[in-house]
Amino acid sequence: MASLFSRETMMKLKSFIGSTKTYVILLVLAIALLLYTVSVGYKQVNRLHKTGDLVSHTLEVQHTIVELSSKFLEVEAIQLRKLFGAEESNLSVIVVTEMGQSLDRLNTLTTDNDAQQERVKALQLLRDKIKVEIDTTAIDDDTKAPDSIQVKDSIVINYNGLRYKRHQRISKIVAESQIIKDRMLAEENYLMVSRKEEYTSQSFLTPMSSLLVALTALGIFLIGFISIYKQKGEIQEVNSQVFIQNKKLQETEEFLKGVYKSSNNVISHFEPILDAHKNIVDFQFRYTSNAIEKVTGSEQDDIIGSSLLEMYPMVLENGLFALMKECYVSGDIQEHESVYTFEGEKKYIFNTIVKSANGITNTAWDTTKVKEAEKNLQKLNDNLSLQNTIFKEAENVAGVGSFIWYLDDGTATVSDNFYRILGVEPNSFEVTFNSYKEFVYPDDVAIFESLSTNDIEKGASTVFAYRVQTIEKGVKHLDLKGKYVEIDNRPVSVGIVQDITARVEKDRALIDSYEKLKHSNEELESFNRVASHDLQEPLRKIQMFISRIEDEGEKSMPASIQNYFGKIKSGTFRMRELIQNLLSYSRIDKINSEFERISLNETVLKIEDELSQLIKETNTSISYKNLPIIQGIPFKIEQLCTNLISNSIKYGKSDVAPKIIISSKKVRNSEIRENFSKNSEYYYKISFIDNGIGFEPEFASNIFEVFQRLHSKNEYSGTGIGLSICKKIVEKHYGYIHAIGKKGEGSTFVIYLPVN
C-alpha cells in the first residue's frame, strides 16, 4: 500500500515537472525574481551615484567657501597697500563684485542646508559692510589727505586718520568672515566624512547586489535552460550594464581618493579605545589622508591602525585629547589650536573635531604661514610705529619739519616740529597758504608765494630760503626743500623745512673771520716782500763791506778784531740762510704745479750727485732699492729727500761714518696706525733710516715745528726750519710724516704718500 502510494506520488511529481504549465510558472517566477534582483542592483547603483554626487557637491561647496574667503583677504590686502600708498587702483570694487558672485553661487549650492544658509546670509552682510567701507573710501580719498606719506626712505602713518581706522574696521570684518569660513568648512568636512562612510557602505553592497543578480541568473539558467537560452541576448545586456556600473563605481572610488590626496587639510577618522569600565583611554586611526605626511613627516600607512597617543603623545598636554573625548561623548563640535613640533620644526595646527558614525573626524589645518603672516604684519606695524616715533624725534633733534602742501587749494599737512619751528603748539591752527603767510617776514612774502607756481616740469620747489617771524624768538631763517608729486591727481609739494638761523649767524661770523684772515694774509704778503727784498739788501751790503775790510786790512788787524769780523760774517750768513728758509717755508702752500710721475730711484740718484762732495767728505753710504714711482711735484719731492738725507748726515756720530737706508712698501690704509686723514685706499710707506745721534722719543713731534732745535747752533749748524719744510711738502702731497728715534741709536723718518 505504501509502495503504491509512493509510486503514484512519484508519477505525479514527474508529470508535474514535465508539464509545460510548470515550466511557464517557473519561468514567470524566475523572471519576477530576476527583475526584482536587477531592480535592487539598479537602485543600489543609483544610490552609489547619488552618494558620489553628494561628495562632489561637498567639494564644490568647500572650494567656493575657500574662494570667497580669499576675496575677503584680498580686499584687506588691497586696503593695506592703499594705506601705505602703494595701491591707487579701484581693484577693491572689482574684488567686491566677484565676492558677490561667489556668494550667489554659494547660496545656490547650500539651499539644502539651513545652517549653511544662515552662515551665507552672515557673509552677505559682511560683504555689504565691506562694500560700504570701500564706497566711503572712494569718497574720502577725493576730499581727505592720505594717512600715510613717504618722507625720504620712511613711511609715516597717521593712526588717527580715516584710512587707518577704515583699514582696522575692514580687518575686523575679514576676521569675522574667516571665523564663519572655518565653521562652514567644518560643517562640510563633517558632511564629507559621513557621505564617504555612506559611499563606502554602498560600494560594499553594490558588488553584493551584483553577485545576487549573477546567482539568480545562474539559478534561472539551471531551472529553465531553454527559456534562458532564448533570452541569451537580454542576459548579456544586463551583465554588460552591471559591468559598466561596477566600472563607474571603481572610477568614483578613485575620484574620491584623488580628492582626499589633493586636499591640504589633514582629514582623520578615529574610533575610541575603551577600557574595562567603558572609559576612553585612547583613539585609533581608522583613516587619515596623505596630507598628514607633509605636516608631520610620518608615513600614511604607518599611521592608519596605530594609537593616537603612541604617535602623538603631546595631545595629552595641549588639551586636544580631552576635546576629542568631549566631542565623542557630547557630540558637540570642538575646535583647538596649538603649537606642535614635527621633525624639529614648530607648526601651528588648527583642529576641528566632529562626531561621525562610531567615531570622530578631525580636520587639521596647518596655520603656520597664517601665524607667520600675522607676526610679520604686527612686526611691520611695530616698526612703522617705531620709525614714526624716531622720525618725530629726529625732526626735533635736527630742527626740521615736514610738510605736504596741496598746490591747488593751498591746504597743507605739516609735522608737529613744523609748528614748533614757528613758535606755536602743534595743531594750534590749520595750515593754509593764507594762514601761514602771516608768519612770513614781510620782505620775503614774494619769495614764499612763488611756492604756488611749482609744477611738474620744475620737479622741485623753487623756494630755498626765507624768513619767518615768531612771537618768542623773533626772526628765524628757514630753508625749504620740496618736490613736486601728484596725490590722487592733485598737484602737491612734499618736502622738509629746516631752521637755519644758527647756520646763517655762523656764516656771517665766518665772513667776518674771512675778512680778518684776508687782511692778515695781506700783511703776510707784505712781510714776504720785505723779507725777500728789504731785509736781504742790507745783509748783502754788510757782507760786501766785511769782505772789503778783510781784503784790505785783515793782516794788519789784531787777532781779536779778526775773530769779531769772523763772527759777524758767520751771523750774517746764518741770517741770510734763515730768511731764505722762511721764504721757502711760506711759499710751499702757494705752489700750484701739476702732479707728475716721479721715480724715487732717479730722484735719490740725482741727490747723490748734488751732495757728492759732502757724501765723500763724511764717508756716507746711502742704500736703496726698488723705490716706487709716485705722483707729485718733482722739485718739491727732491727738496724733501735732500733735506732728510742732509739732516741724517749733519746729525751723524762723530766717530762713525753715516749710513742711510731708504726702503718702501705698499700698505692698505687700515694697516696704518698713525692718525691722519686717509683719503686713499693704499699708501706708499717710505722710510729714511740712519745711524746718527738720534733724539729722545718725547721730542718726536717737536722736531717738525718751525725754529725747534734739539741742539745748540754751536754743536750743529742749521736754522731749525728744514724738517718743518719737509712736513709742509708731505702735507701738500696729501701725506703724513713722523719721526721715530732713540738717543744714541739713530733716527727713522717715515713718510706715507697716497698711491693715487
UniProtKB/TrEMBL annotation:
Keyword vocabulary terms for this entry: Coiled coil, Kinase, Membrane, Phosphoprotein, Transferase, Transmembrane, Transmembrane helix
Q: Kindly list the GO molecular function terms attached to this UniProt entry.
A: phosphorelay sensor kinase activity
What SMART domains does this protein map onto?
HATPase_c, HisKA
Q: What is its EC number?
A: 2.7.13.3
User: Which residue intervals define the domain Histidine kinase in the entry?
Assistant: 530-756
The parts of the chain that form a coiled coil are 106-133
CDD domains cross-referenced by the UniProt entry: HisKA
* UniProt catalytic activity: ATP + protein L-histidine = ADP + protein N-phospho-L-histidine
Q: Where are the transmembrane segments?
A: 204-229
Top class in the EC scheme: transferase
Q: What is this protein called?
A: histidine kinase
